[in-house]
Each structure stands twice: as C-alpha cells, then as structure tokens.
Sequence to fold (587 residues):
Amino acid sequence: MQQKLNTFSGIVFAVYVWTCALAFCAIAGLLLYSVVSAGVTQVNWAFLTQEPIDSGRDGGIAPIILSTVLIIGVCLLATVPLGVGTAIFLADRISGKSKLAIGIRTALDVLGGVPSIIFGLFGNAFFCIALGMGYSILSGGLTLACMVLPIFVRVAESAIRNVAVDHYRAAMALALSKWTTTFRVILPRAIPGLLAALTLGIARALAETAALIFTSGYVTRFPESLNDSGRSLSVHIYDLALNVTGGNDRAFATASVLVILLLLINVVTHFVTRKLLRQS
Amino acid sequence: MISAVTRDAALAFLLRSLALASAGIICLICLFVARESWLALDSTGTVNPADTVGSVNADGEPFQLSNLVNDDGWNPDGQQFNLLPMIVGSLLATFGSALLAGPLGIGVAVFLNYYAPKKIGWAVRRLVEIMAGVPSVVYGLWGLSVLVPMIASLSPIEQGQSLLAGILILTFMTIPTVVVASDAAIQAVPANQIHAAAALGLGRRATVWSIVLPAARFGLVSAIILQFARAIGETMAVLMVCGNIVKMPNSIFAPIRTLTSNIALEMGYADNHHRSILFLSGLVGLVIVSVLMLAANTFSKTQRLST
Fold:
C-alpha cells in the first residue's frame, strides 16, 4: 500500500515538474517567436540606416543605434576601470573575511538589487541636475555605469580568482613586483573572464529603459556630441508602443533588432565562458 | 625611473580607491534620492515661506506626510497626493506574481536537477539564461500586443490592461530569477545526503520532497525574496500592461497603477512637492528592496553554513 501511494505521488510530482518546465518553455518560445517574427520582416538596410520619420512610424532607427552605441560606450569607459580595479582589489589584495571586503561586497550586492527606475531618479538628480550635465548621453551612460557595475565586478572578480595559483606562486618565486604581477601575470590570464564580464555588462545596459528616460532623454535626432540628448533602442520601443499610435510595427521591428543583438551576445558570452572553464 | 616600491604603493592606493568608490555609489544614491525627497519629508509643520506656492493644498493647509494616505485622490495639479491606490496596486501585482513565479520557478529548478534528460536540461538552462536577459520593455511590448488582447476577450469589462496582465507579465519576467537562485540552492545540497537517500531506496519524488527541498529551504526562501524584490521594482513592463489608472482595484480585471509606473509617468513634468513625493516613493522602494536583498543574502548564507 505504502509502495503504491509512493508511486502515485511520484507520478503526480513528475507531472507537476514537467508541466512547470513545459509552461516556461512555451511562454519563452512564444514570446521570442512572436517578437522576432512580427519585427524581423521590416528590418532591412534602409531601416538600419535611415532617420525615423513621423515620430518613428516610418523610416529607420539609425540615430537611435548611434545614441545607443554612444551611451554604452560612455557606460563602459566608466565601468571597466572602476570594475576591474574593484575586482582586483577584492580578489587579490584583501582577505575575503576582512570587514572592508565584506562591506564592499554588501554595498555592491545592494547596488545590484536597486530597481532601475531608482537609478533613473538618481541619475536625474545627480548627473543631470547636480553636476549640470542635463539630459545627455553622458548622464545616461554614467547612470548605466552605476547600474552595470555590480554584475561586472562579480564576474570580473571570479575571472581573476580563476587565475591558477601556480601563476601567483611562480610570480612570487621570481620576486616580481605587485605591479608586474598584476599587469603581466594576472590580467592577461583573466582576459577571457573579463570579456565575459564586459559582454554581460553590455547586455544589461542594452536592456535598460527606466534608468534612461530621465537621464539621456527622448530625442530622436543624430546626437552631435556626448552632451546631446539621445534615445536608446529600448526607450524607442517604449515610446513607439505606448505614446505613438500606429507605432506598434516599428516597435516590434526595433525590438527584434534588440532581441537578436542580445541573443548574439548571449552566444558569445557562453562561448567565452566555456573556453575559460576549459582553460582553468 | 620610479622605483618598484613606489609604483606598487601607488597601485595599491589606486585599487583601494577604486574599490571604495564602487562601494560609495550606493551611498551616493541613497543620499541624492533622500535629498530630493526632503521637501516632502520636512514640511510637516515647518513650511518654508519661499515654497508655499507648491506646498499648500486645495484647503489651504500645508502639506503633511499624512496627506499621502488621506488626500481625496491623486491629482498633483490640485495638490492632492494620495498614494494609497498605487501602494495597493504595487503590492497586489507583486504578491500575485510571487504566488505564481515561486512554485513555477522552483518546479523548473527541480526539473533541471532531477528530471530533465541531459540535453533537454541544457537547452532549458540556456533558455532561462536568455529570458533573464530579455529587456523588460520587450516583455511589456509583447504583453501589450499579445497578452492584453487575450485578457480583454475574457474580461467582463472588456479591457485588457489590468492587474491580471501585470501579475502575468511580472510572473514571466521573474521566473528566470527564481530558477537561477533555487537551482543554486538545490545544487548546494550536500551529495552525501542524496547518496544516503539513494541507499535507503527512496524514489525520485521522495528524495526531492523529503531530502533536497527541506535541505535547500533557506536558499529557496532567498529565491522567493529575490523574486519579490525584482517584481516590486519593475517598471517598464508593468507600466505598459497595467492601464495606469489611479483607482483602488476592485477586481483582478481592473486597471492599476504601481508606484514605479507613477514615477516613470510623471517625473518628466513634476516639480516642487510633486517631484519630491515621486522621489519619496522611490526612496521607500529603495529601502524596501535593499532590506529584501540583504535578507535574501542572509538566507542563502544560512543554507551554506547549515549544511
């Protein structure tokens, strides 16, 4: 009797678990398929190289691509030095159990959980107003840098920790200075992992909308400098879908560009991390 | 030529400064969001004369914090600032999505570890990874043009933008969060416990139900807390599918506006008290989410220590 009950509940449980997995796959598949299939047919060379016409109902997304690239460029210029420095400090220069290390990690963990709209509020108050940058690509990129930093540091730190102990010991045995060890031994060995951190950061930045609306703004023109306001791909999707009647088609076209870009980044990251795992 | 010792000292100083700067960002965020909220927080009693234009409500009384739940409604132009319907909207949408995404996500994590054939498991893991990276605005766009019309055809008020749409979109968005966190919790269960279960002749369900899930309970709670934190802070997708009407929802088909959507919708033109109140609701969100994140961390650490 006990045995039979067990099998019955075993079947029920298996059915439940499989249902969860199938439901998730069905939703994910449906979402990816409907976004890409509704949009990808409109994506062609003209769409990628023209300016938007009639608030984006027509024309292309060229200035928006340029703004996105600039925003992400600013973001990375700030994130990479700050993040790599922090990661080396946490992985190599300080005991993981020291109060300072725990404090820095906790601060980064909390930062990693801050909702994006609050980054938007902060970026608006700090970069746009207090530092006087106004609605600009610079403000948007720097706001995104704050947002991307925690995930970048986490991945970069593990990349640096993954550098084999042998290398440290060899460097020590050669009496290399810390400077040389850092720049000639650790960083070159950690490059694949740092690239993974970089691509993850780019993916995170590409996906962001709420933090950009009130920092880099809405403008659809070609930006002339980093002090100009510029609209990112994600903000363009939001605006077309919600504020422009008849903008849905172009919203899907832009969304499919964004999703395909993110899929490519995912594949690249996966490839790089696998290579890294094989290496260590 | 700079000596190696000075160079090393400079590098050590630089690395320490960079790390401290990274840690300082969260403080800067708290500071600035709090500073901008100050107008709303401070004006209890002491009204700054220079500011009375923005701080006197329709009845000619100075703004007080209690106005945020006592005013007649949300009408920033008329100095009416009742946030209650939005607080309720945010909580309902978040709890609703936690109820769905929690069991579903843990189910997927169990599937990945104990039921999935190797190749299918690999593919589902990749899909989870991909879905975690899909931008919230794309979830919102999909919700608006696929999910909302479906709900509209079922709804008694024939309107799709609703609390239900918000709950579903938040569920879809946060399943990957739950899967990743509970997957880690399940994998952290010590192998000797599972071997012991196998030696006792326990079946798969019994192993999972009586050994793995209890052993992983702290990590699973941590996964649900993370889901909650993610859902309550989500803005764009919810903004696109919920209808954004400021009214206490009376059914699951009623449109709602969440606190986060309210910020996104009104920040562009808000000033004085209005702006300050938007920052204040952001500050409250920031505090709630930070506490949740720290709690989630503590729970997942507890699991690691207790096993």
Summary: Chain A has two domains: 2-42, 47-279. Confidence is low (pLDDT under 50) at residues 1-5 of chain A. Chain A is about 75% helix and 0% strand.
